[in-house]
Amino acid sequence: MTDAARLPPAPDLSSIDALERGLASRGYLADRRLATAVFLALKLQRPLLLEGEPGVGKTELAKALSGLLGRQLLRLQCYDGLEQREALYEWNYAAQLLHLRASEAGVNAKDEGARDAEAEVYQPRYLIQRPLLQALQSPAPGAVLLIDEVDRADEPFEAFLLEYLGEYQVSIPELGTVRAAVPPVTLLTSNRTRDLNDAVKRRCLYHWLDYPERERELAIVRAQVPQAGEALSAQVADFVQRVRAQPFANAFQRAPGIAESVEWARALVALDTVVLDPEVVVDTAGILFKQRDDVAALNHQLATELLAPEAA
């Protein structure tokens, strides 16, 4: 059997509508603007930078794309102090040392054999691949690389990413330039804890991922938590929409994202909740909010106001 015969059938990416349907089949309901950004990133083979509040579906998009495209998902989780070797590669020093010791037995350090042994330790078999290098060297159909929360890394790391983002290649001093055989589908996410360098942005397509409108959020809750009844799903979507809107938004430090809406619906189903009431809202506030002050702010009185019809 040929390699081509073993590959999964290619998904229909002939149009933005087809891409929307494909993502929906993977449980990800993208609006038109997001679907357009993803479609162009795939067609132009450009990285896509997604910015937005936590919990709006940036990471989930990478997971849905991985499944839709039949590509391995590789994730590089960024954090303060992230080093190049943790993102790209590092040498297997223990294996290299064992090789040198085995080769130097009875060989003078000045001999050509010793020099050859030292050169041999810088071979691909002694290279430990990290996500960036894995993405570049993934065989067909390639990989989906998620560079998650890139805003948490420092500026030198951003500069290090430029070669990869611009040319889908990296330079390894001992081996030379490694270019992608199949360009990875690359998504970068940012929660805007700080502004990214313009050089990074210029190498990417850009999309701001906002909170969804009520109908799309309701559709997401229904798709992700089918066990929730129609009335409960609608109440969840309405409640979260009101929390994010004025005048209630001023009462909280951070509004709940889609991830919290879905998790809340699952928790309510686990509690056999049929209809929301102030008591169950207060009791489950820690699922919607992750800040102590926000949980405290959602008291019985505010929950009653948020559930009242006139709050709409």
From TrEMBL:
Residues 44-218 form the AAA+ ATPase domain. Pfam families: AAA_5. This is MoxR-like ATPase. CDD domains: AAA. GO terms for molecular function: ATP binding; ATP hydrolysis activity. PANTHER family: MAGNESIUM-CHELATASE SUBUNIT CHLD, MOXR FAMILY PROTEIN.
